[in-house]
Amino acid sequence: MSLFTKIAKIVGDIMFGIILIVGLTFLVSLLPLKNNYKVFSVMSGSMEPAIPVGSLIFVQPSAIYAMGDIVTYAPSDLNNKKDTTTHRISGKELINGVVFYSTKGDANNTNDSVKIKQDQLVGKYIFKIPYLGYLLSFIKTLTGLVLIVIIPATIIIYEEFRKIANEAKNISKIRQEKKRSRNEISS
Fold first, then answer.
1. Is residue 69 part of a domain?
2. Which helix (H) or strand (E) is 160 found in, with range?
3. Interatomic CA distance for residues 93 and 96, integer angstroms
């Protein structure tokens, strides 16, 4: 095996590994997981140092939320669940029979200006994977989808078709050689 072939194989294996990790990360973010985990990218520094910018976080719905819990919540417009915020619960009060939570980012000096109702809470923070949120956020853009998913997938598909075509040529050659051998034997 030539040096170029070895390098090409190593690069191909690395690209396949990256594509696999990226694909799995993307799928995890879209699929409902066991125990109703949801996955989000944290793209602001309001929760540092507890949750660094670019982290991928997993949250799980809970029946009970307490002071100090880190929660992810949707804006009051419940149709817009894409724009979530992850902050720590800093207070709880009952107003006209409805529970409202005050929240605050760890890196912020003051509480958030809007109180959060129970039905806005998406879930309680469970754990994080630092930096993977950057990748997930990039994949969700058109450029990221093209560069990290579509182009590598196209290259892989092309290579597979090329291998199939080469194998078909080899099979055709073998058949022609067998046919030629039979003709030589019978003549």
1. yes
2. helix 151-186
3. 10
pLDDT, tens digit (0-9, with 9 covering 90-100), for 107-164: 999 999 999 999 899 999 999 989 888 888 888 889 988 887 788 888 888 888 988 9
Q: Could you tell me if 58 and 92 lie in one domain?
A: yes
CATH assignment of the domain containing 78: 2.10.109.10
Cis previous bond, 152, omega within 30: no
pTM tops 0.70, yes or no: no
Whether 24 is covered by a domain: the verdict is no
- DSSP sequence for 66-135: -TT-EEEE--SSTT-TTS-EEEEEEEEEEETTEEEEEEE-TT-SS--SS-EEGGGEEEEEEEEETTHHHH
**Domain total for the chain?**
2
